[in-house]
Amino acid sequence: MFRELFTPQLLRATIRMTTPIILAALGGLLTYKAGIFNIAMEGMILVGAFSAVVGGYFLGNCWLGVIVAILAVLLISAIYGFFVVKLKSNEFIIGIAINIFANGITVYLLRAIFGVKGAFSSPEIPGLPDVSFPLLDKIGILNTILNNHSIFIYLSWLFVLLIYILIYKTPLGIRIRAAGEHPKALETAGVSVSKIRYITIILNGILCGFAGAHLSLGYLTLFTEGMSDGRGWIAVATVIFGEGNPIMTFAIASLFGFTDGLAFLLQGLGIPDRFARIVPHFTVIFALFIVARRAVLKIARKKREVIRKET
Amino acid sequence: MEKVVEMRGITKIFPTVIANNDVDFSLYKGEIQALVGENGAGKTTLMSILYGMNQPIDSGRIFINGKEERIYHPHVAINKGIGMVHQHFMLVPSFTVSENIVLGHEKRKNGILLDKEEAIKITKEISKKHGFLVAPMARVQDLPLGIQQRIEILKLLYRGTDILILDEPTAVLTPQEIKELFSTIRSLVSEGRSIVFITHKLPEVMAISDRVTVMRKGRITGVLETKKTTMKEIAKLMVGREVLFQVEKEEPHFKGVVLELNNIKALSDRILLAVNGVSLKVQAGEILGIAGIEGNGQTELAEVVTGLRPLVSGEIIFQSKNINKASPRQRREMGIAHIPEDRLKTGISIDATIQDNLVMGAHYKKPLARGIHRYLRQTKDYAEKLINEYDIRTANQNLPTISLSGGNLQRLVIAREFSFDSKLLIISQPTRGIDIGSIEFLHEKILSMRDKGNAILLISADLDEIYALSDRIAVMYEGEMVGEFHPDEIGREELGLYMTGAKREN
Question: A2-120+149-310 belongs to which CATH class?
Answer without folding.
Answer: mainly alpha
